[in-house]
Amino acid sequence: MQTSFSDIGQRLAGTSGIQELMDDLGQALNNQPDMRMLGGGQPAAIPAVQALWRERMQSLVNDQTTLDKTLLNYDPPGGNPLFRQNFAAFLKRECQWDVQTENIGILPSSQTAFFLLFNLLAGQTGNTKKRILFPLMPEYIGYASQGLCAGMLSGNPAKIEQRSAHEFKYHVDFDRLRITPDIAALSVSCPTNPTGNVLTQEEFHRLRDLARQHHIPLIIDNAYGHPFPGVIHTSFQPSWEPGMIFSISLSKLGLPGTRTSIVVADPAIIRALSNMNASTALSNGNFGQAIINPLLADDTLLKLSRDIILPFYKQRSDFATQVLHECLQDKIEWSLHSREGAFFLWLWFPKLKITSAELYQRLKARNVLVIPGHYFFYGLDEPWDHSQQCIRLTFSQPEAILREALEIIADELIALH
Amino acid sequence: MQTSFSDIGQRLAGTSGIQELMDDLGQALNNQPDMRMLGGGQPAAIPAVQALWRERMQSLVNDQTTLDKTLLNYDPPGGNPLFRQNFAAFLKRECQWDVQTENIGILPSSQTAFFLLFNLLAGQTGNTKKRILFPLMPEYIGYASQGLCAGMLSGNPAKIEQRSAHEFKYHVDFDRLRITPDIAALSVSCPTNPTGNVLTQEEFHRLRDLARQHHIPLIIDNAYGHPFPGVIHTSFQPSWEPGMIFSISLSKLGLPGTRTSIVVADPAIIRALSNMNASTALSNGNFGQAIINPLLADDTLLKLSRDIILPFYKQRSDFATQVLHECLQDKIEWSLHSREGAFFLWLWFPKLKITSAELYQRLKARNVLVIPGHYFFYGLDEPWDHSQQCIRLTFSQPEAILREALEIIADELIALH
Predict the structure, then answer these.
(1) Domain containing A363: what range?
(2) Are B22 and A259 a contacting pair at CB < 8 A?
């Protein structure tokens, strides 16, 4: 049977860039077991973190009443009431945010939170068509296919600061940022996936003030950042204020299999998201909340982030950077984005003569998988050469694999230049 | 901040009937702890079933490799490859369905499966607007708010067969069923939530033939039925064939907290749903698949359904029916839908002089919560008096509470007539 798909179906189910890429990655994984995987965004297996989750799971299994509820109950679509209350208390105590239970909503993953948020706030709205504006493009690849209406996601190209021969940093280009009446919200991931960029405190405040002035929400995706897993190497600490929407995730704590995110927002937004979650998913999975709930009573999660997770990724990032410098030296023109957070290296080759897609294919042929950078540039008004000159690498892999992969990348790029 | 919501946002997040009702139920639960809850669709706490899930959880915690993967891995958006393979083998062996791994897709709940399916197949499609047709209305309340386009869900009113003084059954009214070119699919829950109706084998075959003739899918929601939890009291056993879309759920096995559904469909549909799941949720929660996977090797799930779950609900249903007959006798005109499956009694009062919403309020004032029937009638071309004359009761509650509640319902209705 040849079934036709709706316009929205084709948007969400079609072969968007990310889906083609995921298929390609999946094929490579299955058919080339010796592939060096520097592609995915999966958190690393950190022994001390895994030990904590195993211990929590054993406690949950020992506590029959809680286990039974975790398996058998449909909680309300906005999350378990007690968990929401405890999470609000946790944020108030540990982050000094002025939040109540009504400011907290649970959703089945950050990915879902953003899908619902973007389509709640933007798209056809009466006679106007509203847009989400990403003020700092490149941005997370997973947002690109989430709009139910064409053209509802717009990006503002970042301004590039060259800090030294082999280091650059993106900044919000406020001179080009135009908040027209059809902009429904500003949205930034911080630390940014893919670049590892972290907003400066000043940028955050300017974005906050702009959003406030235009009566639109400022959305911050804290998946890699505050308050956990806290993989931020600067002093930046965003503080939630009314009118803002923050998304926090359990995934990068090492629990992506639980599909749990926590949204902090005005009560009207939380109610709307809960209602949307009722329509689209009925309720959340209970395991993430059950695992985390007892840890909200103290600062375990913050200590875990600060003492275990942050140093782990810092060490891996330092190692990868050192190998890169050893291999590339000054042989070609290359630049690494300032390593301010998250799990990635974002590499820029300003003199690259092929597209990033071709570079991806060449590296794949040599058993190294990276993510070509062009997928992270979308919703731009005009083409940008820079978008074809970058790749994203994850450094969660063991050091030996990382070294091999980086040597091959360097070798290929030197040959190409 | 007064944030405006998009048209789609208002559709999904607005105060639809079901969301108002859920709020009302939630309030009642919190403020009236002595409320007799005959409202929800939660599975009952069946000791032998709970024992199995506790045992599986302990085994999972003992198996560190699998536990670590369950917590730490992002599986592909269509589900764990091994689970899909094992589930296909299970269906082939136990149900004799001709399915391969590519026919199996995992999604985070049936609710999500239907949200994605309806919007994949129907809504704006080029220049035409396609619709989902429910051939047997009343239907599941949770579908009603899932359409991203206005008017994309249509219902065909059931034909009523009065079988005896106090028993009736719905049939598909094939004389009124008009499959125009804008119909994208036929969709039936079987057993039907709320009515407990089960299609006859003949109805199923006629629907199959009609769908085939019009080159559209026949969608069957098996949440309460085949192959598990198997709460079907007739001999009906649907067999999946190419072109059909079947949805199977872990929820009514007692695992709603895992949010796991299995869709069986043509590979093109499975691929589209997986891609949609990537866009909207990235991947599934892993616990449901991890708990069930080892049980697919034999007929444990079918035996559990047949020997434990089915008799449990049958006994409760018989008890509730007996109490109803004792209380109502022939004092008023009342009729119960033939009890063919699922967890509900569907009661019809043909001479009711108030709306079902008013009846709901009166019963709530007497600490009995039911679901007023009118929510289950939607997408109809013209008003139907019958839609105001029904209520849905769940019989999962302990017998003492069930008896009290039914006595109050009878008392109120006798007073009203």
Answers:
(1) 16-48+303-416
(2) no
